[in-house]
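Known limitations

Structure tokens in this collection are predictions and should be treated as such. Users comparing against experimental data should check residue numbering before alignment. To illustrate the layout, the record for Secreted protein is reproduced below. The input appears on top and the generated tokens appear beneath it.
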Amino acid sequence: MPGPGSSVLHRSLIVAVVLALLTGLAGLVAFLTREDTRTTAERESVPETRQSAPSAPAPVKVPKGGQVAAPVSTSDPVEFAKAAAKVLWSYDTRRLSQPEHIAGLKRWMTTDKKYADWSSVADLVPDPVLWSRMSDQDQYATATVGEGHFPQAFKTALAADPGAITDAYIYAVTVTGRQSITWTGSDQGTGAEARSSTLAVQCRPNRDCRLAAVLPTTAP
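Generated tokens:
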């Protein structure tokens, strides 16, 4: 399993590839020197918790069956990103354990290890302890996707240098939608909120698209 330093390098590489197309060198430098630099430094010194088991594992309910939706078969990065966003914004602690949910999401990832930033996806999933508490309340989330598009800066940069993408074949796609959450128990209720994410999607020629990363900021 890659260490935290390797994870940071993967994320930096993917962000660099996409943002070089999005904003050019000047924008990339500005991005990499933003306030999140402090967070990156902390990640280098503190082990990732999403991939490691907690010191005192919490009991997990036996799942009732079901699985995360399989990756869609398409070479269209926008269509793939919309489907991936819906999966990323959805979960069901009634049917799946946290490891099973994680395993389902991994199927959406590119196998190109040079560009696959699994940590950016795993960070979106509640840790095993929190997942267990959510399961106690039968919590689940569903998502609806409104639209997906290439950020304008990405389209502009790609039009200026079409060959820039032919190494990694990674596209930036911004997806908007809505997530609804339901839970039971003494405080039974529902909640909903608008969601938007910019995904890095790898679509090599003659292959189905796969997810490379979830970018730390949403590009308009």
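For this record: The beta strands are 91-92, 140-149, 170-183, 189-202, 210-214. Residues 88 and 105 are 8 Å apart (CA to CA). Please report discrepancies through the issue tracker.
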